Amino acid sequence: MAILAPIFGLILLGLFHTEAKQHTLSSQDASFCHGELEVIYPELDIYECLIIPKSLREQVSQVWKAPQVYFSTAQKKKTYVLVMVDPDAPNRSKPTSAYWRHWLVVDIQGSALKEGQIEGTSLTDYKPPTPPSNSGFHRYQFMLFEQPPDASVSLTEQEEASRGKWDFQAFITSFDLGEPVATLQFLTQNYKD
């Protein structure tokens, strides 16, 4: 039995090592995150770009509701816009439905963000990440923008009718949102894959 223990250990180490190699963020994916945004699900605290562990993919997709979102450097008197999108719909090699809008909340007070509360006007209710089977890893991006004073941010009727093929850049431009003050992303794939 003592002879088998080192062999069993090497087999386990080999399996773990392969898993880690297959799921390493590219430098481009890792560089997306900036600005101290934190997204918290019940068993998962995301404060840097990462790949969702296989053991948590079903919870992220099927069980957990909208996460808490913290922005510790939010200015209490400013208002913010939170966007969550999938730029890889239906898959990363042919994102014909990008950007797929998972969540859009406007009029968020900075004081609420400092406490991890998303209190504002929900233009698109939270929809969890549900990448199609066999579509590989998808990026789920959270972007936080300062909302210009007196801006009434809204969606057009066409945008309200569909979450997919959202012209995200046109939305940013039309409301003069500029660059995001903070960004965060995670990658996940269908939990059955």
Brief summary of the model shown:
This protein is an alpha+beta fold.
Task: Report on the architecture of this protein.
By secondary structure, the protein is of the alpha+beta class. The protein has one domain: Alpha-Beta Complex (Phosphatidylethanolamine-binding Protein), CATH 3.90.280.10. The protein is 24% helix and 27% strand. The chain is built from six helices and nine strands; from the N terminus they run H-H-E-E-E-H-E-E-E-H-E-E-H-H-E. The protein has helices spanning 4-22, 27-30, 57-63, 110-114, 157-161, 168-174; strands spanning 37-41, 44-46, 50-51, 68-71, 79-86, 100-109, 121-124, 138-146, 182-188. Strand 1 (37-41) and strand 2 form a beta hairpin. Residues 4-22 have low confidence and may be disordered.
CATH homolog superfamily:
PEBP-like
Topology, number of strands: 9
Tell me the overall shape. globular
CATH architecture: Alpha-Beta Complex
Mean pLDDT: 90
Which range does the strand content fall in?
Answer: 25-35%
Query: According to CATH, what is the class?
Result: Alpha Beta
Tell me the CATH topology: Phosphatidylethanolamine-binding Protein
> N-to-C terminal Cα separation, in Å?
35 Å
Q: What's the arrangement of strands in the largest beta sheet?
A: 3-9-8-5-6-7
Please state the CA-atom Rg, rounded to the nearest Å: 19 Å
Helix content: 10-25%
Instruction: Supply the number of structural domains.
Output: 1
State the helix count.
Answer: 6
Low-pLDDT segments: 4-22
Class inferred from helices and paired strands? alpha+beta
N-to-C SSE string, H for helix and E for strand: HHEEEHEEEHEEHHE
Biggest sheet character: 6 strands, mixed
